[in-house]
Amino acid sequence: AQSVTQPDIHITVSEGASLELRCNYSYGATPYLFWYVQSPGQGLQLLLKYFSGDTLVQGIKGFEAEFKRSQSSFNLRKPSVHWSDAAEYFCAVLSSGTYKYIFGTGTRLKVLA
Amino acid sequence: EAQVTQNPRYLITVTGKKLTVTCSQNMNHEYMSWYRQDPGLGLRQIYYSMNVEVTDKGDVPEGYKVSRKEKRNFPLILESPSPNQTSLYFCASSVRLAGSQETQYFGPGTRLLVL
Lengths: 113, 115
What we know:
The complex is a heterodimer. Chain A has strands at residues 3-5, 10-14, 19-21, 24-26, 32-38, 44-50, 56-58, 64-68, 73-78, 87-94, 101-103, 107-112. Chain A is mainly β. In chain A, the strands form three sheets. In chain A, strands 2, 5, 6, 10, 11 and 12 form a six-stranded mixed beta sheet that branches. Chain A has a four-stranded antiparallel beta sheet with strand order 3-9-8-7, with no helix packed on it. In chain B, 0% of the residues lie in helices and 50% in strands. In chain B, strands 2, 4, 5, 6, 9, 10 and 11 form a seven-stranded mixed beta sheet that branches. Chain A binds chain B through residues 6, 9, 32, 34, 42-46, 49, 51, 90, 92, 94, 96, 98-106, and chain B through 31, 33, 35, 40-45, 48, 50, 56, 58-59, 90, 92, 97-100, 102-104, 106-109.
């Protein structure tokens, strides 16, 4: 069965520090992968997506993610975190066969001033 | 302005009283979907629709119904709500499912409390 795992429930970083949020997926074929951000009390906003091609994907707000097929991972990174990045982050996979989305359980990011 | 709207935004109801949460998009998207979000469980897909009159179950469809009679609307129906359906619900839509243009847009959410 397809699944998405975000092993870190909470992460705290200092403003200006680098960030990496982990995402591992289980899927038979090449997946379509996404990262979304949810600010408190808000809906979800797409940060970036991977369908094919270059395995390093650039997104909005200075985020990037790297698809590593050998590790079944799609980790999200940012070189320097801003206080406004405090939010919950969700990794998701889209099944091209069934057109279903599977989301991870999320990672809540706290940024220290 | 391109958007997905949901109504109501907040709803308190009692067990067994039928309710409908509406979802509408103005982007002419073919694909629409409903999710519920619960603490520690992330988002789980309830139902999705590939186009008018085409719907299919997501991972947690029990207790819910949907219909897609028009392209822009995708209402979520709870025929007999129960307390375990207390949750935050999101509607989303996208132009298509494959290819680099696919982006899913989310509504603002509907917070439902079933007593």
